[in-house]
Amino acid sequence: ISDASVPGMPIVFASEGFFKMTGYEPAEILGHSLEKLYGADSDPTTVAMIREAMETHQAVSTCILNYRKDGRSFWNHLSLQPVSDSSGSLRYYVATQV
Q1: Residue 3 CA: distances (Å) to CA of 22, 43, 48, 64, 67
Q2: DSSP element (H, E) containing 79
Q3: Contact indicator for 94, 83 with CB cutoff of 8 Å
Q4: Predicted confidence (pLDDT) at residue 19 exceeds the cutoff of 90
Q5: Which residues pair with 2 in a beta bridge?
Q6: How far is it, in rounded angstroms, from Cα 40 to Cα 58?
Q7: Mean pLDDT for the chain overall
Q8: Do residues 13 and 34 touch, judged by C-beta distance below 8 A?
Q9: Are 19 and 29 within 8 A, CB to CB?
Q10: Cβ contacts of residue 71 below 8 Å, gap of 6+?
Q11: Structural domain containing residue 86
């Protein structure tokens, strides 16, 4: 879960499965953006599409090559869903990764 009210939309919650999948510890991920998982072979067009969706408060679902803490890559089917409060203001982005 990323906080959409803060510049850079930092991660404020991640599941234990996320930490196992990526090899990161909570202190290394919380407060950072999903971009921490991008690497040399992450497709720049896909990265731009994800950024654009988040900047325009849209949902997005795509596959992207991400990287674990140890540098090993993995294919990630990423789905991002915006979550608004009762007044319609964007509050969070919820990401699922498979």
Answers
A1: 20, 24, 19, 22, 22
A2: strand 73-84
A3: yes
A4: yes
A5: 11, 93
A6: 26
A7: 95
A8: no
A9: yes
A10: 39
A11: 2-97
Q: What is the pLDDT of residue 53?
A: 94
Count the domains in the chain: 1
* Tens of pLDDT, residues 20-63: 999 999 999 999 998 999 999 999 999 999 999 999 999 999 99
Token duo for residue 8: 């850079």
Q: Residue 87's pLDDT band (boundaries 50, 70, 90)?
A: very high
**CA dihedral (91, 15, 76, 44) positive or negative:** positive
* Prediction pTM value: 0.88
Tell me, what CATH number does 51's domain have?
3.30.450.20
